[in-house]
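Today's session is about reading a structure prediction critically. Students often jump straight to the picture, but the first step is always the sequence itself: look for stretches that repeat, for charged clusters, for runs of hydrophobic residues. Only then move on to the predicted structure, which in these notes is written as discrete structure tokens rather than atom positions. Here is the chain we will use throughout the hour.
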Amino acid sequence: MTTEITQAGTRANAFTDDALGTLDATGVAEAIAAGTLGVAEAATAATERIRTVDPATRAVRWWLPEGGTGPQAPADAAFHGVPSAIKENTAFAGLPTTMGSAALSVTPAKRSGPVGEQFAATGVNVLASTVMPEFGMTASAEFADRAPARNPWNTDYTVGGSSSGSAALVASGALPIAHGNDGGGSIRIPAALNGLVGLKGTRGRLAELPALAVLPVNVVCEGVLTRTVRDTARYFAAAERHRRNPALSPVGHVRGPGRRRRIGLVTESVTEFGIAAECLAPVRTLADELTDQGHEIIELSMTDLRIDGGFVDDFLHYWGLLAGLEVAVTGAVTPGRFGALDPVTRSLLRSGLFGAPSIPGAIARLRAVTGNYERMFVERGVDAMLSPTMTSTTPRIGHLDPALPFDEFMSRTIAMVGITPLNNVSGGPAISVPCGFDDAGLPLGAQFAGPAGMEATLLELAYEVEELRPFARIDG
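Below is the predicted structure for this chain, in token form.
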């Protein structure tokens, strides 16, 4: 296990010769089921790993008592006893739901909400909650009042967001699996920046907060960060055994690659900033490799998707509205707490207020995205889309400092995140898988996206990528 990790600019590697070894979540679950690894032994090893890397990564927000919750599901649950963590915006018994904000109460939740219940039903042993940017509104867990979360591959760089701490713990090897959720790329962004697998399911696929159902456009979906495709596939199968949306065909337990597909290659960003060459080049190479494997690749444009620059403005107007709703619902707008909000949150609230007249039109246009997105798959005859996950490489800490002038902060964010929000608005599933490294030695991601209900297809493609180019671990 790496120990020289308390200074920035180093690699925070938690892998060591302990009870967890290099096992992924499935491997840990199988060892526990076979009796060769105890639940308490796994929790102790994971706790020690977390405490070793956390001074460098700042990934943990709140701890449960030593040993965690213990499995809250039967012994035959998919991840019975596997140590894990849950994002701090999710109600989970015994943990404060602080949503990355210093403005909220640190009172532990008395009971878990539907998302926490579904997560626990898969058998995971929750040890802690993980750090996120305030209200999940930004793509980097950087704060005005405390240290940022850092990328374990190189702690000079951001870990991404908003499922920031979860990604850091899984990528570092401290945990094999951790919870995340995705409202604009918040699973897929940190997955890409940390060499992980991150699947945003179809809208409504997994349990969600009841309040989301009344939003005019529900952009949030729950999921996990993992190091292997089989862990993500196993999680979705297990989560659906607890609660399945009857309006969607079940994902089932996808166990490997599937049939040959017709895949649309996207090489454009919806933003004016385009896609960095370092992000695009390995995805083009992957497309060539998939062609060699018998898949058909065709080029797609934003015109095919009927998306133009107006999408960015509409999404930002809606993002400001969501920020206002989150702050209002959580009580952070009370006079004694408003000043504790990060500067970027306060700016988002002002932006949402000033942009209120544009909201009805923005909502109408965003709602139309779903139909256009789904029709594209039929009209172009493609089963999935392939693109870079990110439109820029991993930025250094400070690049997305919430104290920056708001316009500059948003321009930098838009330049980095030019693809992922489309699937939050359309509701279609999308998965990020590792796809090489940039010139600084930091991971890059490729995204497969599909029509509603087609998570199984995306998982099959992800398995094939993993076979073609096995995913690197941080200890490699």
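Discussion point for the tutorial: Confidence is low (pLDDT under 50) at residues 1-7.
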